[in-house]
From TrEMBL:
Cross-referenced PANTHER family: 2FE-2S FERREDOXIN-TYPE DOMAIN-CONTAINING PROTEIN, FERREDOXIN/ADRENODOXIN
Domain of life: Eukaryota
Any single GO BP term: P450-containing electron transport chain
Assigned GO CC terms: mitochondrion
Keyword presence, Oxidoreductase: no
Known cofactor(s): [2Fe-2S] cluster
GO molecular function annotations of the record: 2 iron, 2 sulfur cluster binding; electron transfer activity; metal ion binding
Record key words, sorted: 2Fe-2S, Electron transport, Iron, Iron-sulfur, Metal-binding, Transport
Native source species: Chlorella sorokiniana (Freshwater green alga)
Protein name: 2Fe-2S ferredoxin
Family label: Belongs to the adrenodoxin/putidaredoxin family.
Positions of the 2Fe-2S ferredoxin-type domain: 65-171
Length: 175
């Protein structure tokens, strides 16, 4: 919980800048939310973020652009770099490219088997804040780290190009 609150404060300061770097429907959808977060500075404003994220994802998917994402599997030491279309989740990207990332609940935030670890703190800091539901599920994940995320909750953005994600050697399924 403390981790979530600290990062919410940090991200409220970053969001307006992120919104200004977008175009079209995504920026329009995110800008009012970012402004609200900056003015209110509280958790209530952040509750509106998922809708903005969804709007970004739809616009990004339509753009047809992609980024490079590398998966490192700690189970067998294998490494795979794939092209990831903007707007798709890390879990979707993994499954489309035969990367062994489980995702037992298919993205309904009920299992934590899609746990990934962002290798580089710099990339982790660029990601949108995990919401309370993701944080709660992350707390139950095997091998939790300071840069852990759930793959089903992170959508591909341009600023993630070159990101490296480690897949832990085991997972906890709370289902
Ligand atoms: S797939 Fe179950 S929480 Fe992500």
């Amino acid at each position: 919980m403390l981790r979530a609150l600290a990062r919410a404060a940090q991200s409220a300061a970053l969001l307006p800048a992120a919104a200004s770097g977008m175009g079209g429907a995504a920026a329009e959808a995110l800008a009012p939310t970012a402004a609200a977060a900056a003015v209110c500075g509280g958790r209530a404003a952040w509750l509106r973020l998922p809708a903005a994220r969804r709007a970004f994802s739809a616009a990004a998917e339509e753009s047809g652009e992609s980024i490079s994402v590398t998966f490192k599997d700690e189970k067998d030491g294998s490494e795979k770099t794939v092209k990831a279309p903007l707007g798709k989740s890390i879990l979707e990207i993994a499954h489309e490219n035969d990367v062994e990332l489980e995702g037992a609940c298919e993205g309904s935030l009920a299992c934590s088997t899609c746990h990934v670890i962002v290798e580089d703190q710099e990339y982790y800091d660029k990601l949108p804040e995990p919401d309370d539901d993701e944080n709660d599920m992350l707390d139950l994940a095997f091998g939790l780290t300071d840069t852990s995320r759930l793959g089903c909750q992170v959508k591909c953005h341009r600023y993630m190009d070159g990101i490296v994600l480690r897949i832990p050697s085991a997972s906890n399924n709370q289902q």
